[in-house]
# Entry
Amino acid sequence: MHDLGFFRANLDAVAERLAARNYKLDVESFRDLDQRRRAALSEAETLKAQRNAASQEIGKLKRQGVDTEAQQAQVREMGDKIATLDKRAEELETEYRALMARIPNLAHESVPAGADAGANVEIHRWGTPPAFAFQPKAHWDLGPELGVLDLERATKITGARFAVYWDLGAKLERALINFMLDTHTREHGYTEVLPPFLINSTSLYGTGQLPKFEEDLFHLQGFDLWLAPTAEVPVTNLFRDETIDAEKLPISLCAYTPCFRSEAGSYGRDVRGIIRQHQFQKVELVKFARPDQSHEQLEKLTSDAEDILKRLNLPFRRIVLSTGDMGFSSAKTYDLEVWLPGLNDYKEISSCSNFEAFQARRANIRIRTGKKTEPLHTLNGSGLAAGRTWVAIVENYQQADGSVIVPDALRPYLNAERITKRAELK
# Structure
């Protein structure tokens, strides 16, 4: 949600900044709605004050024995008009808030301007893509050949875009989650949280998934509950409707959750393998920061996510997203893209974003400095997506004989140095 005072006072400039995000704000319609809403509220409040004054006058006259029937009739008429104005003001307020809820965040001044991903800017690269003396395979071939990835049975059980992991394939996913959580809590200063995986509509509104992205979510019929699309939602909402003392910031939390997404509108993209699934596992990093420190914290959060890739020795690059490619709630986003030999390209494995006060206003999360309170800043990023990290390891560490070397950092978790073809079940 936007700062309404700033929004109203700088409407033309705001509209120009939103245009850089491919969002067209009808300035005149917005002004008209805002003026009608404020006029209805003002008229109702004025009439209420007049009614109160008239009621007090009636009380005085009654004590003096004066007949007040005419005045009482006027007060009743005022009451009817106030009820009409209140209803109208409520309708306009609902319309106004519905409009504001669908307006994206303003981009930070450091974000490159551009209409789409073509304007994204590469910041740096780390590591060198492996040079194979053989033709490397994609994970959708290598995983089934090793017997550790089973897409056919997953389709039978549930449907397309689900996966079954077997044996060391399942252990690799679990090892990655534990390795990420341990690294972030022991080395990077995060506190681990295990939140609910079912969340209510208010929580999704707070982080910006509702109302705009309802079609991307899975809803439980008959309940005000949704499957979590990311741990960002429940973890950010831990402090909804709370005020936090400034001395306690920054607060850095990490959480594992399965994530559920309908991937509406994405059909035809990344349909092979497990790059884009309806269910996947992820470790999320969430920060609550002072407004003057949030962009510094974004750099730290992104570096913490990068550290996982470095410890696994996986080549990656960091991209800053343009104004036209950022997510709805973000003020600035870095994408980390890992090298995948199966695609012969880099693929996103983490998005790290600073939402500034946008989510905090929607979720009513404030910071207290002395007697003053104001919205704090929220940040989050994947640290990392376990499934795509699984893909990156299988593809980058594959050997000529079809086996996969286990990265050194994971061997204590996996209790294995190599993934070889799984024996058939008896």
User: Anything to note?
Assistant: The chain has 13 helices and 17 strands. The chain has a mean pLDDT of 94. The chain has two domains: 26-101, 117-419.
